[in-house]
Amino acid sequence: MKYYEGRFSGKRAVVTGASAGIGKAAALRLAKEGARVGLISWAKEELEGVAHQITTEGGVAIPLFADVSNEDQISKAIDTAAKAWGGLDIVVSNAGIELPFEDNTTDAVPFSVWQKIVNVNLTGQFLSCKYGLRHLLAAGGGAVVMVASPCGEKGFCFKEHAYTASKGGVMSLMKVMALDYIAHNIRVNAVIPGMIDTPMNAHVMSDPELLKMWTSTIPIKRAGTADETAAVILFLLSDEAAYVVGSAWAVDGGQLAG
Questions:
Q1: Could you tell me which CATH number the domain at 12-251 has?
Q2: Which end of the chain has the least Cβ crowding within 10 Å, N or C?
Q3: Which position among 131, 163, 181, 243 bears the catalytic label?
Q4: Where are the domains of the chain?
C-alpha cells in the first residue's frame, strides 16, 4: 500500500475501534489518502500493528489506547491527537461490541451484559463524539461518521435486545447531532454495515450452516468486507458528500431494502 496526496491531505482524524475490522480498514484508507490518523482502541498489540503498517508505508498515525466507555480515557486519547496536530477535522465513531452468546431477550438478558453492551456501543459513541466535536467546533467545521447496524432499524437480531437497543440509540443520536451541528459546518452521518466479514462476526463466518442461513437473507447472497464499508465511510467524510447531512447509508447487500 502506497501513501499519497489524496482527498484527505492535511486532514486530521481519529478513528475508534481502529485495531481491527471496519475501524482498521477506515484508518488505513484515510492514511492512504493523506490524513493523519489517531488510532483508538483498547487492543494494544493489534493497534500498534496498524500504526506500524501505516507509518512504514509513509503515512502518519498515532496509536492511542483507550476504552471508549471510559470518559477519562477517551477524552485524553482524542485530546492527544488534537494536540499533536493542532486540531481535528474528522471523527469516525466506530468502536462497538456484540455478545451473541451473552445477550438475550429483555426478560432474560443479565443487567451486567446490558450495561456492558450499551456502555460501549452507545455511551462510547456519545463520548467519542462529545470530545471529538469539541475539536471540530474549534476548527470551524468537519465531518463525523458513526457506525450503526441494521439491527437498529429492524428487529431481526433475535435474542440480542441489548445490542439492538444500543444501535437504535446510535441512529437517534446521529440524527439529532446532524441537525444541531450543521450550523457549525459539521456534517454528521452514519453507515449501517450488514453482515460484514470482521472479527465481530467470526462466530458466523466460521460456521458454514450459520453463514448459509444469514447470507440467504441478503439479496446479494454474500457477506460484505470491511474495505467495502470503509469506502462508504470515506465518501461520507469527503467533500464529495458536502450535501449529505443526517443520512444513514446501508452497506448491507440490500438487506434493509426488503
A1: 3.40.50.720
A2: C
A3: 163
A4: 12-251
